[in-house]
Design goal:
The protein is mainly α. Helices cover 83% and strands 3% of the residues.
Length: 191
């Protein structure tokens, strides 16, 4: 009896795995799969952009805190002004409140421009070029082939190990579940 239950559990797991593989394969081949790939790519780029701004804001602010002679600063809201300064550096902008004076401050400003500004430009160009979807379609195709291969392996394993087809296993599992529920109901009624 225990071996029978173990076999039933294994078949259920394989059926669920096969169903998940087929569902993912269908979804990836649709528009939503390609859309999800691009959204995740854009999200990763935006996270890099945001973390870079925070890093250079912190760096510039700490350079000012360590030695006030690194920047010529005439404002009143130090922390916010340095955030504004970092963001303006990306867009070729300049603000009158903060001027880098030391070599270290100028290096920080140059690095923040190249790291964030140029990267942002590359991201925008890449997004425009990726609208062609060639690389996305290739990745989706490779993923689909992998999933189909896994599904075929699973079907072959079920045939060899349990002597069952996927479709007949669905019916068998449903019958077993129905029988077990009826048995449980009968036992519950008795006790």
């Amino acid at each position: 009896m225990e071996e029978y239950l173990l076999k039933e559990v294994r078949i259920k797991r394989m059926l669920l795995a096969n169903y998940a593989i087929e569902l993912l394969s269908k979804r990836l081949n649709g528009y939503k799969g390609q859309q999800a790939y691009i959204i995740s790519w854009i999200f990763g780029a935006m996270m890099f952009f945001l973390s870079s701004i925070i890093f250079f804001w912190f760096l510039n602010f700490q350079l000012y805190k360590i030695d006030h002679s690194n920047f010529n600063y005439t404002g009143t809201s130090t922390s916010f002004d340095f955030l504004y300064y970092t963001i303006k550096t990306i867009t070729f902008g300049d603000i009158e409140l903060i001027k880098p004076i030391s070599v270290l401050a100028r290096i920080s400003e140059t690095c923040s421009f190249f790291t964030i500004g140029i990267f942002f430009l590359v991201i925008v160009v890449s997004i425009v070029l990726s609208m062609k979807q060639d690389k996305v379609n290739e990745n989706v195709k490779l993923t689909t082939e992998l999933m189909n291969s896994e599904s075929l392996t699973l079907i072959t394993y079920m045939k060899e190990e349990f002597g069952l087809e996927i479709k007949s296993a669905f019916g068998e599992i449903k019958n077993i579940d129905d029988s077990l529920k009826k048995l449980k109901d009968i036992i519950d009624k008795i006790f």
